[in-house]
């Protein structure tokens, strides 16, 4: 029997990774979230695990989607926006539409954050002015 080459080992390893499944507790530990959060994402249509009786069996795709969901949330995207991107990817594997939508979402998110930063700067200026008026009034009282 001929020895396996490095290339064959890599192919087998990739195949095993593609077919690997995960339990809800494994994913919860890996991503440092609760199993309840994972079930919530499933209820929202972001994850679609297989079932074996009462047990959920998560695929590599579910794991990737969970990671993308958590990343999207950190970037400030709503679950509806994240689901829209998943739906676009499922419908168009070339991902052109998904990328165009993502660019639009990123632009809108950036504009919203910029507006929030401008608003915060304005409030800080107003607070500085109020503090100065209060300090001046205190000095006049003494």
Structure description:
The chain has 142 residues and is mainly alpha-helical. It has two domains: 1-75, Orthogonal Bundle (Multidrug-efflux Transporter Regulator, Chain: A, Domain 2), CATH 1.10.1660.10; 92-142. 74% of the residues lie in helices and 4% in strands. It is built from six helices and two strands. Strands 1-2 form a two-stranded antiparallel ribbon. α2 packs across α3 and α5 (79-91) runs antiparallel to α6. The longest helix is centred in the last third of the chain and has 46 residues, at 96-141. The chain is elongated. The model has no long low-confidence stretch (mean pLDDT 87). This is MerR family transcriptional regulator. InterPro entries: DNA-bd_dom_put_sf, MerR-type_HTH_dom, MerR_fam. Residues 110-140 form a coiled coil. Pfam families: MerR_1. One of its GO terms (molecular function) is DNA binding.
Give the distance, in angstroms, between the N- and C-terminal Cα atoms.
Answer: 97 Å
In percent, how helical is the residue content? over 70%
Number of domains: 2
* Biggest sheet architecture: 2 strands, antiparallel
Look up the CATH topology of the largest domain.
Multidrug-efflux Transporter Regulator, Chain: A, Domain 2
Secondary-structure class: mainly alpha
Average pLDDT value? 87
Q: Please tally the helical runs, counting DSSP H or I stretches of 4 or more residues.
A: 6
Poorly predicted runs:
none
CATH class of the largest domain: Mainly Alpha
Strands, count? 2
* Whole-angstrom Rg: 25 Å
**What is the strand arrangement across the widest sheet?**
1-2
CATH-defined architecture of the largest domain: Orthogonal Bundle
User: Which H/E pattern describes the elements?
Assistant: HHHEEHHH
The best one-word shape is elongated
Strand content: under 5%
Keywords: Coiled coil, DNA-binding
Domain HTH merR-type: 21-88
GO molecular function: DNA binding; DNA-binding transcription factor activity
Protein name: MerR family transcriptional regulator
């Amino acid at each position: 029997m001929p020895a396996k080459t490095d290339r064959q080992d890599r192919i087998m390893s990739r195949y095993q990774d593609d077919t690997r499944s995960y339990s809800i507790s494994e994913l919860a530990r890996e991503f440092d979230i609760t199993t309840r959060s994972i079930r919530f994402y499933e209820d929202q249509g972001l994850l679609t695990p297989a079932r074996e009786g009462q047990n959920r069996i998560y695929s590599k795709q579910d794991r990737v989607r969970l990671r993308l969901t958590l990343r999207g949330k950190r970037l400030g995207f709503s679950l509806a926006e994240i689901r829209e991107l998943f739906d676009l990817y499922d419908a168009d594997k070339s991902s052109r539409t998904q990328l165009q939508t993502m660019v639009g979402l990123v632009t809108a998110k950036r504009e919203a954050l910029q507006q929030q930063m401008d608003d915060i700067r304005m409030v800080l200026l107003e607070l500085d002015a109020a503090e100065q008026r209060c300090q001046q009034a205190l000095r006049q009282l003494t």
